[in-house]
Design goal:
Distance between the termini: 34 Å
CATH class of the largest domain: Alpha Beta
CATH topology of the largest domain: Rossmann fold
Strand content: 15-25%
Number of strands: 12
Strand order of the largest sheet: 2-1-3-5-6-4
Number of domains: 2
Largest sheet: 6 strands, mixed
CATH superfamily of the largest domain: NAD(P)-binding Rossmann-like Domain
Shape: globular
């Protein structure tokens, strides 16, 4: 349904939020949002839904948001960069990333854009592995939107070093620049990358390789082979379908502590809810809902 249709169904008194993307039917965001509303005792007053918005239609979606009096929107692919250009104001994090994953409608009718991906990632590290980035050495594989959010967040959380590896060296350099002065682009392949991974406390796969539906068959295509990992390290794959990913299975076999991307999803959504409702969201209730909706394989 469209935002206007959902508004007509729930009536004018309900705070309507949701997620826009394409494809978006698989999104867990409404599940997490609605579980939180129920746990907060807001189930009758707040409602979240998913809204399919075709590529290039972000402006129309924001117009629909205003027209339907939507309180907030979570933004996923492929609209994050378009929304960053279209909202009335962005916070500093969203401005630096050039990407918005959360829109808040203000009382004056303006739209405010933020990006909670990086904060969600750091929070998931703390909850899932007891890992705080301050003073730690980190490796991020990838230079896309998710990777850039992680790189910036690690630097802002006090990481001692953030190495970035990507198949396209120029993109690695641009992404590493977000972590200045602790960011460094590392060439894919060769002894420099192996030494960097060996000395890292945290290694993050921020590429879609291994995601359900992709054709990557084996570790030969991984920029960081999980066999390089070892005990005492934390390995994170931002992919959460399948659970666990092949890379995480191999990283766990190598001795690393492993986390998938479900935690980042939960905690970035919690940060959005805090902005929209002005209240502390029930993170554990959201975790429970996420675990039910996306259980580990086997």
């Amino acid at each position: 349904m469209t935002m206007a249709e959902v508004r007509g169904r729930v009536g004018p008194a309900v705070h309507l939020v949701g997620v826009i993307g394409s494809p978006v039917a698989h999104s867990l965001s409404p599940v997490l949002h609605n579980a939180a509303f129920a746990a907060m005792g807001l189930g009758d007053a707040w409602r979240s839904d998913a809204f399919e918005v075709s590529p290039g239609r972000a402006a129309a979606a924001l117009d629909a948001m205003r027209a339907a009096a939507v309180t907030g929107l979570s933004v996923t692919m492929p609209h994050k960069s378009d929304v960053a250009r279209l909202v009335d104001e962005c916070n500093e994090t969203a401005r630096r990333l050039g990407a918005v994953n959360c829109v808040q409608a203000r009382a004056d009718g303006s739209l405010f854009g933020t990006n909670t991906d990086g904060a969600g990632f750091v929070a998931s590290l703390v909850r899932g592995a007891g890992f705080a980035p301050r003073g730690r050495r980190c490796v991020v594989v990838g230079a896309g939107g998710a990777a850039r959010a992680v790189i910036l967040a690690l630097a802002e959380a006090g990481a001692a070093h953030v190495a970035v590896v990507n198949r396209t060296p120029e993109r690695a350099v641009g992404a590493a620049d977000l972590a200045r002065p602790v960011g460094e682009a590392v060439r894919a392949g060769g002894p420099e990358l192996e030494a960097t991974v060996e000395g890292a406390d945290l290694v993050v796969n921020a590429t879609p390789l291994g995601m359900a539906g992709t054709t990557a068959a084996d570790g030969g295509e991984w920029l960081v082979r999980p066999g390089l990992l070892h005990q005492g390290q934390v390995a994170v794959d931002l992919v959460y379908a399948p659970r666990p990913t092949p890379w995480l299975v191999a990283a766990r076999t190598a001795g690393a502590t492993t986390l998938d991307g479900l935690g980042m999803l939960v905690h970035q959504a919690a940060a959005q809810l805090a902005l929209w409702t002005g209240s502390e969201p029930p993170v554990e209730a959201m975790w429970q809902a996420a675990a039910i909706a996306s259980p580990p394989a086997g």
